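Hey,

Quick one before I head out. I ran the complex with zinc ion overnight. Inputs first:
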Amino acid sequence: MPLRSASPTPLPGPLCVEMHMLLALSGRGCLVLHHAVTGGRSPCAHTPCAPPAPTGPKRTLSASGSQPSNGPEPGGQPLKTRTLSGMASKTTTTITPKRIAHSPSLQSLKKPIIPKEFGGKVPTVIRQRYLNLFIEECLKFCTSNQEAIEKALNEEKVAYDRSPSKGIYLNVAVNTLKKLRGLAPSAVSSLSKTSGRRVVSHEVVLGGRLAAKTSFSLSRPSSPRVEDLKGAALYSRLKEYLLTQDQLKENGYPFPHPERPGGAVIFTAEEKRPKDSSCRTCCRCGTEYLVSSSGRCVRDEECYYHWGRLRRSRVAGGWEAQYMCCSAAAGSVGCQVAKQHVQDGRKERLEGFVKTFEKELSGDAHPGIYALDCEMSYTTYGLELTRVTVVDTDVHVVYDTFVKPDNAIVDYNTRFSGVTEADLADTSVTLRDVQAVLLSMFSADTILIGHSLESDLLALKVIHSTVVDTSVLFPHRLGLPYKRSLRNLMADYLRQIIQDNVDGHSSSEDAGACMHLVIWKVREDAKSKR
Ligand SMILES: [Zn+2]
Ligand SMILES: [Zn+2]
Protein backbone atom coordinates (compact mmCIF):
# COMPACT_ATOMS: atom_id res chain seq x y z
CA MET A 1 0.00 0.00 0.00
CA PRO A 2 1.49 3.32 -0.96
CA LEU A 3 1.47 4.98 2.37
CA ARG A 4 3.53 7.87 1.24
CA SER A 5 0.72 9.51 -0.54
CA ALA A 6 -1.60 12.39 -0.03
CA SER A 7 -4.25 10.79 -2.18
CA PRO A 8 -7.17 8.95 -0.68
CA THR A 9 -5.83 5.83 0.90
CA PRO A 10 -7.38 2.52 -0.01
CA LEU A 11 -9.28 0.73 2.66
CA PRO A 12 -7.88 -2.55 3.85
CA GLY A 13 -8.65 -5.88 2.34
CA PRO A 14 -11.87 -7.07 3.90
CA LEU A 15 -13.74 -4.01 2.70
CA CYS A 16 -12.11 -3.95 -0.68
CA VAL A 17 -13.22 -7.36 -1.70
CA GLU A 18 -16.92 -7.06 -1.44
CA MET A 19 -18.78 -8.86 -4.13
CA HIS A 20 -22.44 -8.93 -4.61
CA MET A 21 -23.25 -12.31 -3.29
CA LEU A 22 -26.43 -12.52 -5.24
CA LEU A 23 -24.28 -13.14 -8.24
CA ALA A 24 -22.67 -16.07 -6.60
CA LEU A 25 -25.90 -17.32 -5.16
CA SER A 26 -28.12 -17.01 -8.09
CA GLY A 27 -26.22 -16.12 -11.21
CA ARG A 28 -26.24 -12.88 -13.04
CA GLY A 29 -29.43 -13.56 -14.92
CA CYS A 30 -31.48 -13.69 -11.82
CA LEU A 31 -29.92 -10.66 -10.31
CA VAL A 32 -30.43 -8.71 -13.47
CA LEU A 33 -34.01 -9.79 -13.62
CA HIS A 34 -34.68 -8.44 -10.18
CA HIS A 35 -33.15 -5.16 -11.01
CA ALA A 36 -34.51 -4.68 -14.45
CA VAL A 37 -38.07 -5.70 -13.93
CA THR A 38 -38.59 -5.54 -10.22
CA GLY A 39 -42.22 -6.13 -9.68
CA GLY A 40 -42.73 -6.57 -13.34
CA ARG A 41 -42.12 -10.22 -14.02
CA SER A 42 -44.56 -12.94 -13.47
CA PRO A 43 -44.09 -13.35 -9.77
CA CYS A 44 -46.53 -16.09 -9.04
CA ALA A 45 -45.05 -18.38 -11.61
CA HIS A 46 -41.55 -17.76 -10.46
CA THR A 47 -39.72 -18.95 -7.43
CA PRO A 48 -37.43 -16.17 -6.38
CA CYS A 49 -33.90 -17.46 -6.33
CA ALA A 50 -32.70 -14.77 -3.97
CA PRO A 51 -34.08 -11.69 -2.29
CA PRO A 52 -34.17 -8.85 -4.75
CA ALA A 53 -32.09 -5.78 -4.74
CA PRO A 54 -32.58 -3.64 -1.67
CA THR A 55 -35.29 -1.14 -2.15
CA GLY A 56 -35.19 2.38 -3.37
CA PRO A 57 -35.24 4.01 -6.73
CA LYS A 58 -31.52 4.17 -7.05
CA ARG A 59 -30.19 1.89 -4.40
CA THR A 60 -26.72 0.83 -5.07
CA LEU A 61 -25.95 -2.78 -4.65
CA SER A 62 -22.63 -3.65 -3.28
CA ALA A 63 -20.62 -5.14 -6.02
CA SER A 64 -16.97 -5.01 -5.35
CA GLY A 65 -14.03 -3.39 -3.81
CA SER A 66 -12.30 -0.23 -4.62
CA GLN A 67 -10.97 1.14 -7.80
CA PRO A 68 -7.34 0.29 -7.94
CA SER A 69 -5.99 3.47 -6.47
CA ASN A 70 -8.91 5.01 -4.77
CA GLY A 71 -10.69 5.05 -1.48
CA PRO A 72 -13.62 3.27 0.01
CA GLU A 73 -15.87 1.62 -2.47
CA PRO A 74 -18.60 -0.55 -1.16
CA GLY A 75 -20.78 0.38 -4.08
CA GLY A 76 -21.94 -0.89 -7.37
CA GLN A 77 -25.28 -1.38 -8.95
CA PRO A 78 -26.16 -4.32 -11.06
CA LEU A 79 -27.62 -3.30 -14.34
CA LYS A 80 -28.63 -5.36 -17.17
CA THR A 81 -25.97 -5.56 -19.75
CA ARG A 82 -22.32 -6.11 -19.38
CA THR A 83 -20.45 -3.89 -21.70
CA LEU A 84 -17.20 -2.15 -22.18
CA SER A 85 -17.64 1.44 -21.41
CA GLY A 86 -15.91 3.78 -23.75
CA MET A 87 -15.08 5.98 -20.81
CA ALA A 88 -13.25 3.30 -18.90
CA SER A 89 -9.81 3.90 -20.28
CA LYS A 90 -10.20 7.63 -20.14
CA THR A 91 -11.25 7.52 -16.56
CA THR A 92 -8.50 5.33 -15.31
CA THR A 93 -5.88 7.52 -16.89
CA THR A 94 -7.23 10.70 -15.44
CA ILE A 95 -7.56 9.74 -11.83
CA THR A 96 -5.78 12.29 -9.71
CA PRO A 97 -2.16 11.25 -9.79
CA LYS A 98 -0.70 10.40 -6.49
CA ARG A 99 1.63 13.08 -5.32
CA ILE A 100 4.71 12.45 -3.35
CA ALA A 101 4.22 14.27 -0.12
CA HIS A 102 7.35 15.64 1.42
CA SER A 103 6.03 15.29 4.89
CA PRO A 104 6.26 12.75 7.65
CA SER A 105 4.87 9.42 6.65
CA LEU A 106 4.45 6.08 8.26
CA GLN A 107 7.55 4.70 6.67
CA SER A 108 9.74 7.12 8.54
CA LEU A 109 7.87 6.64 11.79
CA LYS A 110 8.22 4.06 14.46
CA LYS A 111 4.89 2.40 13.93
CA PRO A 112 3.00 1.32 17.02
CA ILE A 113 2.06 -2.35 16.96
CA ILE A 114 -1.28 -3.65 18.16
CA PRO A 115 -0.53 -6.36 20.70
CA LYS A 116 -1.58 -9.84 19.68
CA GLU A 117 -4.71 -10.91 21.48
CA PHE A 118 -5.47 -14.59 21.55
CA GLY A 119 -9.04 -15.26 20.48
CA GLY A 120 -9.78 -11.58 20.11
CA LYS A 121 -13.04 -10.48 18.54
CA VAL A 122 -11.19 -8.71 15.73
CA PRO A 123 -8.08 -10.16 14.08
CA THR A 124 -5.00 -8.18 15.01
CA VAL A 125 -4.00 -7.79 11.40
CA ILE A 126 -7.23 -5.94 10.66
CA ARG A 127 -6.81 -3.68 13.65
CA GLN A 128 -3.25 -2.95 12.64
CA ARG A 129 -4.31 -2.03 9.15
CA TYR A 130 -6.87 0.44 10.43
CA LEU A 131 -4.45 1.84 12.94
CA ASN A 132 -2.01 2.51 10.11
CA LEU A 133 -4.72 4.21 8.08
CA PHE A 134 -5.73 6.32 11.07
CA ILE A 135 -2.13 7.39 11.62
CA GLU A 136 -1.78 8.29 7.98
CA GLU A 137 -4.87 10.49 8.20
CA CYS A 138 -3.89 12.03 11.53
CA LEU A 139 -0.50 12.98 10.14
CA LYS A 140 -2.32 15.28 7.76
CA PHE A 141 -3.69 17.51 10.47
CA CYS A 142 -1.76 16.86 13.67
CA THR A 143 1.14 19.12 14.42
CA SER A 144 3.55 16.37 15.43
CA ASN A 145 4.10 12.72 14.67
CA GLN A 146 3.61 11.89 18.30
CA GLU A 147 0.28 13.64 18.42
CA ALA A 148 -0.86 11.82 15.27
CA ILE A 149 0.12 8.44 16.68
CA GLU A 150 -1.59 9.10 19.99
CA LYS A 151 -4.75 10.30 18.33
CA ALA A 152 -4.80 7.30 15.99
CA LEU A 153 -4.18 4.86 18.82
CA ASN A 154 -6.98 6.41 20.78
CA GLU A 155 -9.40 6.32 17.85
CA GLU A 156 -8.59 2.70 17.15
CA LYS A 157 -9.07 1.76 20.78
CA VAL A 158 -12.42 3.50 20.91
CA ALA A 159 -13.53 1.67 17.77
CA TYR A 160 -12.37 -1.64 19.19
CA ASP A 161 -13.94 -1.12 22.59
CA ARG A 162 -17.23 -0.08 21.08
CA SER A 163 -17.51 -3.09 18.80
CA PRO A 164 -18.84 -6.38 20.03
CA SER A 165 -17.99 -8.13 16.75
CA LYS A 166 -15.67 -7.91 13.80
CA GLY A 167 -18.47 -6.81 11.51
CA ILE A 168 -19.33 -3.89 13.71
CA TYR A 169 -15.67 -3.05 14.19
CA LEU A 170 -15.26 -2.76 10.43
CA ASN A 171 -18.20 -0.41 10.21
CA VAL A 172 -17.05 1.69 13.12
CA ALA A 173 -13.51 1.79 11.80
CA VAL A 174 -14.60 2.93 8.36
CA ASN A 175 -16.67 5.67 9.92
CA THR A 176 -13.74 6.69 12.05
CA LEU A 177 -11.61 6.88 8.94
CA LYS A 178 -14.19 9.06 7.25
CA LYS A 179 -14.35 11.24 10.31
CA LEU A 180 -10.60 11.63 10.32
CA ARG A 181 -10.61 12.47 6.65
CA GLY A 182 -13.19 15.11 7.41
CA LEU A 183 -10.78 16.57 9.94
CA ALA A 184 -7.99 16.88 7.46
CA PRO A 185 -7.57 20.46 6.22
CA SER A 186 -8.30 19.48 2.63
CA ALA A 187 -11.86 18.64 3.60
CA VAL A 188 -12.54 21.49 5.96
CA SER A 189 -14.67 24.09 4.32
CA SER A 190 -17.79 26.14 4.56
CA LEU A 191 -21.27 24.81 4.23
CA SER A 192 -23.00 25.10 0.94
CA LYS A 193 -25.99 27.34 1.28
CA THR A 194 -28.09 25.43 -1.18
CA SER A 195 -27.53 21.90 -0.04
CA GLY A 196 -26.17 22.10 3.44
CA ARG A 197 -23.31 19.95 2.24
CA ARG A 198 -19.66 20.67 2.72
CA VAL A 199 -18.32 21.99 -0.49
CA VAL A 200 -14.62 21.94 -1.06
CA SER A 201 -13.01 24.00 -3.71
CA HIS A 202 -11.44 22.00 -6.47
CA GLU A 203 -8.08 23.60 -5.95
CA VAL A 204 -8.09 22.56 -2.33
CA VAL A 205 -9.15 19.05 -3.24
CA LEU A 206 -6.53 18.71 -5.88
CA GLY A 207 -3.79 20.47 -4.06
CA GLY A 208 -4.64 19.65 -0.50
CA ARG A 209 -2.87 21.14 2.44
CA LEU A 210 0.38 19.63 1.33
CA ALA A 211 0.22 21.40 -1.99
CA ALA A 212 1.72 24.47 -0.43
CA LYS A 213 4.69 22.51 0.82
CA THR A 214 5.52 20.27 -2.06
CA SER A 215 6.97 20.80 -5.45
CA PHE A 216 4.56 18.26 -6.86
CA SER A 217 1.50 20.37 -6.24
CA LEU A 218 -1.18 20.22 -8.87
CA SER A 219 -2.21 23.77 -8.22
CA ARG A 220 1.04 25.49 -8.96
CA PRO A 221 0.62 28.94 -10.46
CA SER A 222 1.91 27.64 -13.78
CA SER A 223 -0.96 25.14 -14.05
CA PRO A 224 -3.46 25.83 -16.80
CA ARG A 225 -6.37 27.97 -15.75
CA VAL A 226 -9.13 25.47 -16.32
CA GLU A 227 -11.09 26.70 -13.33
CA ASP A 228 -12.55 29.29 -15.63
CA LEU A 229 -14.19 26.67 -17.80
CA LYS A 230 -17.80 27.83 -17.83
CA GLY A 231 -20.80 28.52 -19.98
CA ALA A 232 -20.43 27.76 -23.65
CA ALA A 233 -16.85 26.54 -23.19
CA LEU A 234 -17.96 24.08 -20.54
CA TYR A 235 -20.87 23.03 -22.72
CA SER A 236 -18.62 22.22 -25.64
CA ARG A 237 -16.24 20.27 -23.41
CA LEU A 238 -19.10 18.34 -21.89
CA LYS A 239 -20.28 17.23 -25.30
CA GLU A 240 -17.33 14.84 -25.32
CA TYR A 241 -18.85 13.03 -22.35
CA LEU A 242 -22.39 12.59 -23.61
CA LEU A 243 -23.79 9.09 -23.62
CA THR A 244 -23.93 7.53 -27.06
CA GLN A 245 -27.15 6.03 -28.37
CA ASP A 246 -25.81 2.58 -27.47
CA GLN A 247 -24.92 3.67 -23.97
CA LEU A 248 -28.36 5.19 -23.52
CA LYS A 249 -29.85 1.88 -24.57
CA GLU A 250 -27.70 -0.38 -22.46
CA ASN A 251 -28.24 1.80 -19.41
CA GLY A 252 -32.00 1.56 -19.70
CA TYR A 253 -32.85 5.09 -20.78
CA PRO A 254 -36.37 5.57 -22.13
CA PHE A 255 -36.81 6.12 -25.87
CA PRO A 256 -39.95 7.24 -27.70
CA HIS A 257 -42.28 4.42 -28.59
CA PRO A 258 -42.25 4.08 -32.38
CA GLU A 259 -46.03 4.09 -32.65
CA ARG A 260 -47.76 4.96 -29.39
CA PRO A 261 -47.84 8.71 -28.65
CA GLY A 262 -46.66 9.32 -25.10
CA GLY A 263 -45.32 5.80 -24.93
CA ALA A 264 -41.73 4.85 -24.19
CA VAL A 265 -39.57 1.84 -24.80
CA ILE A 266 -36.64 0.58 -22.76
CA PHE A 267 -34.13 -1.65 -24.40
CA THR A 268 -33.16 -3.37 -21.19
CA ALA A 269 -36.69 -4.37 -20.25
CA GLU A 270 -36.74 -8.14 -20.14
CA GLU A 271 -40.19 -9.36 -19.46
CA LYS A 272 -43.68 -8.35 -20.17
CA ARG A 273 -46.15 -7.58 -17.50
CA PRO A 274 -47.38 -10.76 -15.83
CA LYS A 275 -50.67 -12.13 -17.02
CA ASP A 276 -51.93 -12.30 -13.49
CA SER A 277 -51.89 -8.60 -12.68
CA SER A 278 -53.02 -9.15 -9.11
CA CYS A 279 -49.78 -10.87 -8.18
CA ARG A 280 -46.68 -8.86 -7.33
CA THR A 281 -43.21 -9.51 -6.01
CA CYS A 282 -42.00 -7.20 -3.30
CA CYS A 283 -38.93 -5.34 -4.49
CA ARG A 284 -37.64 -5.14 -0.92
CA CYS A 285 -37.96 -8.65 0.43
CA GLY A 286 -38.82 -10.80 -2.59
CA THR A 287 -42.11 -12.04 -1.19
CA GLU A 288 -44.96 -12.58 -3.61
CA TYR A 289 -48.17 -10.86 -2.63
CA LEU A 290 -51.62 -10.19 -3.99
CA VAL A 291 -53.14 -6.82 -4.72
CA SER A 292 -56.64 -5.69 -5.52
CA SER A 293 -57.51 -3.82 -8.69
CA SER A 294 -56.75 -0.56 -6.89
CA GLY A 295 -53.24 -1.76 -6.17
CA ARG A 296 -53.86 -2.20 -2.46
CA CYS A 297 -52.49 -5.26 -0.73
CA VAL A 298 -55.17 -7.88 -0.27
CA ARG A 299 -53.72 -9.18 2.98
CA ASP A 300 -52.11 -7.28 5.81
CA GLU A 301 -48.60 -8.59 5.75
CA GLU A 302 -45.55 -6.87 7.12
CA CYS A 303 -42.44 -6.60 4.98
CA TYR A 304 -39.24 -7.70 6.68
CA TYR A 305 -36.27 -6.59 4.66
CA HIS A 306 -32.66 -5.50 4.79
CA TRP A 307 -32.13 -1.93 3.71
CA GLY A 308 -28.41 -2.48 3.33
CA ARG A 309 -26.66 -4.04 0.41
CA LEU A 310 -25.36 -7.55 0.34
CA ARG A 311 -21.65 -7.78 0.14
CA ARG A 312 -19.11 -10.49 0.24
CA SER A 313 -16.67 -10.21 3.08
CA ARG A 314 -13.61 -12.24 3.76
CA VAL A 315 -13.88 -14.07 7.04
CA ALA A 316 -11.68 -16.63 8.69
CA GLY A 317 -11.69 -19.64 6.43
CA GLY A 318 -13.42 -18.16 3.41
CA TRP A 319 -16.07 -15.75 2.29
CA GLU A 320 -19.39 -14.76 3.71
CA ALA A 321 -22.21 -12.72 2.24
CA GLN A 322 -23.53 -10.21 4.70
CA TYR A 323 -25.98 -7.35 4.62
CA MET A 324 -24.30 -4.07 5.26
CA CYS A 325 -27.22 -2.86 7.38
CA CYS A 326 -26.86 -5.42 10.13
CA SER A 327 -24.02 -7.77 9.15
CA ALA A 328 -26.50 -10.64 9.06
CA ALA A 329 -25.84 -13.49 6.67
CA ALA A 330 -27.37 -13.54 3.20
CA GLY A 331 -30.89 -14.89 3.18
CA SER A 332 -31.60 -14.07 6.81
CA VAL A 333 -34.87 -12.48 7.81
CA GLY A 334 -34.84 -8.72 7.37
CA CYS A 335 -33.70 -6.43 10.14
CA GLN A 336 -36.25 -3.77 9.22
CA VAL A 337 -39.97 -4.04 9.14
CA ALA A 338 -42.42 -2.02 7.08
CA LYS A 339 -46.19 -2.13 7.08
CA GLN A 340 -46.50 -3.80 3.72
CA HIS A 341 -44.78 -5.07 0.60
CA VAL A 342 -44.09 -2.69 -2.25
CA GLN A 343 -43.15 -2.79 -5.91
CA ASP A 344 -41.22 -0.57 -8.30
CA GLY A 345 -43.42 -0.81 -11.37
CA ARG A 346 -41.89 2.10 -13.27
CA LYS A 347 -40.99 -0.05 -16.24
CA GLU A 348 -44.47 -1.49 -16.54
CA ARG A 349 -46.32 1.71 -17.24
CA LEU A 350 -44.40 3.25 -20.07
CA GLU A 351 -46.98 5.83 -20.99
CA GLY A 352 -47.54 9.49 -20.26
CA PHE A 353 -44.02 10.36 -21.40
CA VAL A 354 -43.02 13.71 -22.84
CA LYS A 355 -39.92 14.45 -24.88
CA THR A 356 -37.74 17.53 -24.68
CA PHE A 357 -37.86 19.46 -27.93
CA GLU A 358 -35.56 21.44 -30.18
CA LYS A 359 -35.38 25.15 -29.45
CA GLU A 360 -33.82 28.05 -31.29
CA LEU A 361 -30.90 29.64 -29.50
CA SER A 362 -30.47 33.36 -29.38
CA GLY A 363 -27.05 34.89 -29.97
CA ASP A 364 -24.16 33.10 -28.35
CA ALA A 365 -26.27 31.35 -25.73
CA HIS A 366 -25.75 27.65 -25.15
CA PRO A 367 -28.55 25.15 -24.58
CA GLY A 368 -27.88 24.84 -20.86
CA ILE A 369 -26.25 22.44 -18.42
CA TYR A 370 -28.12 21.12 -15.40
CA ALA A 371 -27.87 18.31 -12.90
CA LEU A 372 -31.04 16.61 -11.85
CA ASP A 373 -32.10 14.21 -9.14
CA CYS A 374 -35.43 12.75 -8.12
CA GLU A 375 -36.81 11.11 -5.03
CA MET A 376 -39.55 8.53 -5.17
CA SER A 377 -42.04 6.99 -2.79
CA TYR A 378 -44.11 3.82 -3.04
CA THR A 379 -47.73 4.22 -4.05
CA THR A 380 -50.39 1.69 -4.86
CA TYR A 381 -48.91 1.69 -8.35
CA GLY A 382 -45.27 1.43 -7.43
CA LEU A 383 -42.47 3.98 -7.22
CA GLU A 384 -43.69 7.44 -8.08
CA LEU A 385 -41.99 10.82 -8.13
CA THR A 386 -42.28 12.78 -4.89
CA ARG A 387 -39.46 15.30 -5.23
CA VAL A 388 -37.32 16.69 -8.00
CA THR A 389 -34.33 19.02 -7.85
CA VAL A 390 -32.45 20.74 -10.68
CA VAL A 391 -29.17 22.56 -10.08
CA ASP A 392 -27.10 24.70 -12.43
CA THR A 393 -23.36 24.63 -13.02
CA ASP A 394 -22.75 26.85 -9.99
CA VAL A 395 -24.59 24.19 -7.98
CA HIS A 396 -27.38 26.63 -7.29
CA VAL A 397 -30.78 25.05 -6.99
CA VAL A 398 -32.92 26.37 -9.83
CA TYR A 399 -35.90 24.10 -9.30
CA ASP A 400 -36.84 22.04 -6.30
CA THR A 401 -40.31 20.85 -5.54
CA PHE A 402 -42.19 18.14 -3.76
CA VAL A 403 -44.63 16.32 -5.98
CA LYS A 404 -47.94 14.75 -5.17
CA PRO A 405 -48.11 11.35 -6.84
CA ASP A 406 -51.14 10.34 -8.88
CA ASN A 407 -51.80 7.37 -6.64
CA ALA A 408 -52.10 6.89 -2.91
CA ILE A 409 -48.81 6.57 -1.07
CA VAL A 410 -48.33 3.34 0.80
CA ASP A 411 -44.74 3.92 1.95
CA TYR A 412 -42.84 7.19 1.85
CA ASN A 413 -39.56 5.31 1.48
CA THR A 414 -38.14 8.00 3.71
CA ARG A 415 -34.88 6.24 4.41
CA PHE A 416 -33.97 6.61 0.77
CA SER A 417 -36.13 9.44 -0.45
CA GLY A 418 -35.90 11.71 2.55
CA VAL A 419 -39.52 12.57 1.77
CA THR A 420 -42.01 12.51 4.64
CA GLU A 421 -45.74 12.72 4.95
CA ALA A 422 -45.42 16.29 6.21
CA ASP A 423 -43.42 17.25 3.11
CA LEU A 424 -46.27 16.27 0.84
CA ALA A 425 -49.14 17.45 3.03
CA ASP A 426 -49.46 20.84 1.36
CA THR A 427 -48.22 19.86 -2.06
CA SER A 428 -50.50 20.04 -5.02
CA VAL A 429 -47.78 19.94 -7.69
CA THR A 430 -48.37 17.01 -10.00
CA LEU A 431 -46.12 15.08 -12.33
CA ARG A 432 -47.70 16.94 -15.26
CA ASP A 433 -46.79 20.28 -13.67
CA VAL A 434 -43.22 19.14 -13.26
CA GLN A 435 -43.03 17.94 -16.86
CA ALA A 436 -44.26 21.32 -18.06
CA VAL A 437 -41.62 23.16 -16.06
CA LEU A 438 -38.83 20.90 -17.24
CA LEU A 439 -39.87 21.14 -20.88
CA SER A 440 -39.73 24.90 -20.66
CA MET A 441 -36.44 24.86 -18.80
CA PHE A 442 -34.70 22.34 -21.05
CA SER A 443 -34.37 21.83 -24.77
CA ALA A 444 -33.39 18.62 -26.51
CA ASP A 445 -29.80 19.89 -26.54
CA THR A 446 -29.62 20.78 -22.87
CA ILE A 447 -26.99 18.66 -21.16
CA LEU A 448 -28.58 16.88 -18.22
CA ILE A 449 -26.26 15.41 -15.61
CA GLY A 450 -27.22 12.73 -13.15
CA HIS A 451 -26.20 9.49 -11.51
CA SER A 452 -28.08 6.68 -13.21
CA LEU A 453 -30.22 9.43 -14.67
CA GLU A 454 -32.40 6.86 -16.45
CA SER A 455 -33.99 6.15 -13.09
CA ASP A 456 -34.97 9.82 -12.71
CA LEU A 457 -36.19 10.14 -16.28
CA LEU A 458 -38.40 7.09 -15.78
CA ALA A 459 -39.92 8.65 -12.69
CA LEU A 460 -40.33 12.01 -14.46
CA LYS A 461 -41.58 10.28 -17.59
CA VAL A 462 -39.31 12.51 -19.61
CA ILE A 463 -37.42 11.34 -22.69
CA HIS A 464 -34.11 13.11 -23.13
CA SER A 465 -30.94 11.88 -24.76
CA THR A 466 -28.35 14.62 -24.19
CA VAL A 467 -27.01 13.13 -21.01
CA VAL A 468 -23.85 12.92 -18.93
CA ASP A 469 -24.22 10.07 -16.46
CA THR A 470 -21.74 9.93 -13.58
CA SER A 471 -22.31 6.20 -13.22
CA VAL A 472 -20.93 5.83 -16.76
CA LEU A 473 -18.33 8.57 -16.50
CA PHE A 474 -16.83 6.88 -13.45
CA PRO A 475 -17.41 3.24 -14.28
CA HIS A 476 -17.01 0.38 -11.91
CA ARG A 477 -13.79 -1.48 -12.51
CA LEU A 478 -15.78 -4.61 -13.28
CA GLY A 479 -17.93 -2.78 -15.81
CA LEU A 480 -21.66 -3.19 -16.09
CA PRO A 481 -23.79 -4.56 -14.49
CA TYR A 482 -21.90 -3.00 -11.62
CA LYS A 483 -22.07 0.66 -10.90
CA ARG A 484 -20.34 2.72 -8.31
CA SER A 485 -22.47 4.64 -5.87
CA LEU A 486 -22.60 8.41 -5.96
CA ARG A 487 -21.62 8.42 -2.34
CA ASN A 488 -18.43 6.52 -3.01
CA LEU A 489 -17.55 8.58 -6.05
CA MET A 490 -17.80 11.68 -3.93
CA ALA A 491 -15.66 10.16 -1.22
CA ASP A 492 -13.07 8.97 -3.70
CA TYR A 493 -12.71 11.87 -6.04
CA LEU A 494 -13.77 14.90 -4.06
CA ARG A 495 -13.22 13.55 -0.56
CA GLN A 496 -16.67 14.63 0.43
CA ILE A 497 -18.92 12.48 2.48
CA ILE A 498 -22.56 12.47 1.53
CA GLN A 499 -24.38 11.75 4.72
CA ASP A 500 -26.28 8.49 4.58
CA ASN A 501 -28.42 8.95 7.63
CA VAL A 502 -31.84 7.59 8.44
CA ASP A 503 -33.46 10.82 7.35
CA GLY A 504 -32.79 9.75 3.82
CA HIS A 505 -31.11 11.24 0.85
CA SER A 506 -31.70 14.68 -0.47
CA SER A 507 -32.21 15.21 -4.16
CA SER A 508 -30.56 18.62 -3.96
CA GLU A 509 -27.53 17.07 -2.33
CA ASP A 510 -27.28 14.34 -4.92
CA ALA A 511 -27.83 16.65 -7.87
CA GLY A 512 -25.15 18.96 -6.53
CA ALA A 513 -22.80 16.02 -6.07
CA CYS A 514 -23.23 15.01 -9.71
CA MET A 515 -22.51 18.53 -10.91
CA HIS A 516 -19.40 18.74 -8.75
CA LEU A 517 -18.12 15.42 -10.00
CA VAL A 518 -18.64 16.17 -13.66
CA ILE A 519 -17.07 19.60 -13.54
CA TRP A 520 -14.18 18.18 -11.57
CA LYS A 521 -13.72 15.49 -14.20
CA VAL A 522 -13.83 17.92 -17.12
CA ARG A 523 -11.26 20.16 -15.51
CA GLU A 524 -9.00 17.25 -14.68
CA ASP A 525 -9.13 16.03 -18.25
CA ALA A 526 -8.55 19.53 -19.55
CA LYS A 527 -5.40 19.76 -17.44
CA SER A 528 -3.96 16.49 -18.64
CA LYS A 529 -4.56 17.44 -22.24
CA ARG A 530 -2.26 20.41 -22.08
ZN1 LIG B 1 -30.21 -5.97 7.79
ZN1 LIG C 1 -41.65 -7.04 1.18
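Residues 306, 308, 323, 325-326, 328, 335 surround zinc ion (ligand 1) (CB under 6 Å).

Talk tomorrow,
K.
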